[in-house]
Write a structure and sequence with these properties.
Elements: E1 12-15, H1 21-31, E2 36-41, H2 55-64, E3 68-73, H3 79-93, E4 98-101, H4 125-148, E5 151-157, H5 168-188, E6 193-199, H6 206-214, H7 218-221, H8 232-242, E7 253-255, H9 256-263, H10 277-280
Parallel strand pairs: 1-2, 1-4, 2-3, 4-5, 5-6, 6-7
């Protein structure tokens, strides 16, 4: 299957947590526009993780979609491995156009209906992967992007930024993600590099599908019409990366469903994904460096 367009031909992307789920979906969506995608994740061999998917299998899909995939096994708990990834990109590609910070640990305790004091302290790995490692990856990416005068750093967040979902550390991590991208946008002003936080609603990933079966009450709380495929956020990222005016959005937090409507995008099956702004909350940070909005 060839690419849908060549709008990202010659562009280089790094997507974290792309063995499966949203990361894989984003990698495939970028590939459909001809991008070279560095697919990172911890799962290298089939059976290594309880859920299906490996970095190499995602690379095969990326190649089949019209892009060029490069598999890079990566443990985001290891700063040296993160540094080595970006050094590889610099050495082999000479440029970096898109960084998508998607990866975040999802320990079993996160979806338990327990108080934070009843959960193990090692659940802090949600923050270490979803926030600390994302900052380090962006730090390395900016050192490539700023000198070239262009680039997009996108972080996956969600309505949890303002609405309680799952637990304390999960909400804290996603709220901090929004603020981090807001402040990165401020410091990147005038460099040609943009930073945005993207709110994704319920997504039918392998893990989420399993949770529907096992987490008490979860299936009853979900209207299936609001859920999207893992590739939906990737379609939004691709549109942003191809938008010559993306800099006007830098520092902002955006709902993927609303950006999709602006860009005329649907999900893979042609469905229009609704915004949940009215029921789940609105982003705090608009584009720019000082604008604040109450939810």
């Amino acid at each position: 299957m060839g690419s849908l367009s060549n709008g990202l031909a010659g562009r280089v992307a790094v997507v974290t947590g792309a063995s499966r789920g949203i990361g894989k979906g984003i990698a495939c969506a970028l590939a459909e526009h001809g991008a070279t995608v560095y697919v990172t994740g911890r799962t290298v061999n089939p059976g290594q993780h309880a859920l299906p998917g490996t970095v190499n299998q995602t690379v095969e899909e990326v190649n089949a979609r019209g892009g060029r995939g490069v598999a890079v096994p990566l443990d985001l708990a290891d700063d040296a491995q993160i540094a080595a990834l970006f050094e590889q990109v610099r050495r082999d590609e000479g440029r970096l156009d898109i960084l998508v910070n998607n990866a975040m640990a999802i320990p079993d305790a996160m979806t338990r209906r327990d108080g934070f004091w009843e959960k193990p302290l090692d659940e802090w790995e949600i923050w270490d992967t979803g926030m600390r490692a994302a900052y380090i990856a962006a730090w390395h990416a900016a050192q490539i992007m700023v000198p070239q005068g262009s680039g997009l750093i996108a972080a996956l967040s969600g309505y949890v930024g303002v609405t309680y979902t799952y637990d304390v550390i999960f909400g804290t991590t996603k709220t901090a993600t929004d603020r981090m991208m807001r402040d990165m946008g401020h410091e990147l002003r005038g460099t040609g590099v943009s930073a945005v936080s993207l709110w994704q609603g319920f997504t039918y990933t392998e893990r989420a599908t399993e949770n529907l079966k096992t987490v008490p009450g979860m299936a009853n709380q979900l209207n299936s019409a609001v859920g999207s495929s893992p590739e939906f956020p990737g379609r939004v990222v691709a549109a942003l990366a191809m938008d010559p005016q993306v800099g006007s959005r830098s520092g902002g937090t955006f709902i993927n469903a609303e950006l999709a409507a602006e860009y005329g995008l649907t999900d893979r099956d042609g469905r229009t994904i609704p915004s949940l702004r009215e029921t789940r909350g609105a982003p705090l940070w608009a584009a720019g460096d000082t604008t604040w909005r109450a939810s």
